[in-house]
Structure formats: structure tokens, C-alpha cells
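Same chain as my last thread, 159 residues:
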Amino acid sequence: MSKICILAVDPGLSGAVAFLFTEFPFRIAVEDMPVAGKMVSAPLLTDMIRKYGPAIAVIESVGSRPGQGVASTFKFGTAYGVVQGVIGALQIPVEFVSPQRWKKHFRLTSDKEQARAKAQQLFPACASSFQRVKDHGRAEAALIARYGFETLFPASAAA
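reply #2:
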């Protein structure tokens, strides 16, 4: 298989972006969501994505949660829209995956510590990227990328 880069996004201000190359599925590049002025920075996100040149994006498909305030829902929706807008403007094909689907794939619950542990297990050479409690966004983006690899390129994942 030729070298293909998968972009994965855990959206939101505390989210992250991950890049997985199909020829190296046990290594991952993860970066915190670029934020400027309490908003996702479209220019910084664009530069980050261009640097890796992904062929496809996998974005966690999420919505507001019960009990979430109007202001935080609006802020999250704006961040989610910036992510989709940047990826759309870069003309990268997108797959959406619900948190329930990718977490079930890895047999995880909603516990963010489980996601960090699983990311450290799947990407041992990059485990330091997930060492802090606040690195759960990075871990989730990495797992979304790995989910994309295993489901969109199953022949490569099995090899």
C-alpha cells in the first residue's frame, strides 16, 4: 500500500488532531487543537493539516450533551464548524464516526482514562504524547485515527 495519511479530529477547544500514516500504523503524530482567543484558529489548523497532507479525515461526530449550557454548546458548535470548514476548504474527503462507534471498536467506555491507556498501548513509541491527564483529547484523536485505519483500510490493518 502506498503512503496514505489519515487525519483524525477530536473536535472542540480541548480536542486534538492526529495524523496516522498507513505505512506506520503504530506511530502517531498528535497535536492539541490550535486555539487563539478562546476559539479554534482556522489559519493555524489549516497550516497544521497542510504540513501532513492527509488524503482522508475522520471526525468525531458529536452534538450537545444534556445539561450542557447554551454558551458552552455554542462555543463547541463554533469549534466543530471551524474544523469542518477548514477540512472542507482543503477538499479532504471526510468520514464521521460517533463516539459510541469508535469506543465500542476498542471496547472502551466513556472513561477518558481508558482512552489514554489504550492510546499508550497502541502507540508505545509515542506514549509520552498521552502521559498527562489533560492529554485525553490527544488520546481520543489518536484512537479515532486508528479506528479510521482499521475500518477504512482493513486489508492493511490485518497485515
